Amino acid sequence: MAVRDPLGPHRKVHPLTDDPAAALEALLGHRFARPALLREALTHRSAAERRGHGSNERLEFMGDRVLGLIVAEWLVERFPREQEGDLGRRLAQLVSQPVLTAVAEALGLGPALAVAPGEARAGVTTRATVLADALEAAIGALFLDGGLDTARDFVRRAFAAVMAAQTAPPRDAKTALQEWAQKRGLPLPDYQLTDRSGPPHAPVFSVQVTAGPLSGTGTAPTKRGAEQRAAAEALRAAAGPA
Of 7, 30, 65, 141, whose CB is crowded by the most CB atoms within 10 A? Predict the structure, then answer.
């Protein structure tokens, strides 16, 4: 998903010799009173021990909740006549991993991340999950350092393009797959939880779905999210008109 540069012509270009944390501070539009928060937000778990402080996982946990609140508030304001179902689908798309990754890439977040040398050589700073998590961690750091208004200002600037592009509520993948199966006289899609991993505060669910000849798998921090991703993969496998 292409996302317009959130800063547009106002982006300040920093040479590669610049401190990446200072460059990101400028991109986030906030001078940190507690720079340690920003350093933590930029630290992948592979580099946490080497840097002598925690990874960005705790800030990601915080940022995920802050982002959801800010986007929900924005949607209610922007679409005053829409009901919960449509708003929920909009919210799910706007905070989804593909959107977060695209926004993080537009910001140039990857080069600012601290990772272990081996992980850097493996290209971990370009991985979708790493970029999405780092963006949420940055939002968490903004919230803790500057409060909700600071986090809100950043989110509304960084997500403006994807919000504007969302003219209609996204179609729910599980609903679409169910309709696909019913139209063909097939049983309802069958979702099976295949794995649950991760710590209690950051679980990871893996789900597999079958719907007639179609199948798909999905992984997400919630079971429902994993089901949605599995359904979306199954629909892509259809490769034909519904």
Answer: 141
DSSP 80: T
H or E stretch covering 71:
helix 57-78
For the chain, the domains span 14-165, 173-238
| Distance separating alpha carbons of residues 118 and 138, to the nearest angstrom | 23
Min mean pLDDT across 2-6, 198-202, 227-231 is at 2-6
Catalytic one among 40, 57, 60, 64? Answer: 64
Residue in the block written with tokens 């669910």: 205
How does pLDDT run across 192-216, given as a tens digit for each residue? 999 999 888 888 999 999 999 999 9
Rounded to whole angstroms, the Cα distance separating 95 from 97 reads: 7
- Looking at the domain covering 173-238, what would its CATH class be? alpha beta
Q: Which residue in the list 40, 133, 136, 172 is annotated as catalytic?
A: 136
Q: Is 86 a catalytic residue?
A: no
Distance from C-alpha of 32 to C-alpha of 27, rounded to nearest angstrom: 12
CATH of region 14-165: 1.10.1520.10
Here the tokens at position 54 are 């925690």
Q: pLDDT by residue (tens digit) across 141-190?
A: 999 999 999 999 999 999 999 999 988 888 788 888 998 899 999 999 99
Task: Report the distance separating Cα 199 and Cα 111, nearest Å.
Answer: 28
Q: Give how far the C-alpha of residue 157 lies from the chain's centroid of Cα atoms, to the nearest Å.
A: 16
What does the angle CA 79 – CA 59 – CA 37 come to, to the nearest 5 degrees? Answer: 115
Please, are residues 145 and 71 in contact by the beta-carbon 8 Å criterion? no
- φ/ψ (deg, to 5) at 114: -95, 120
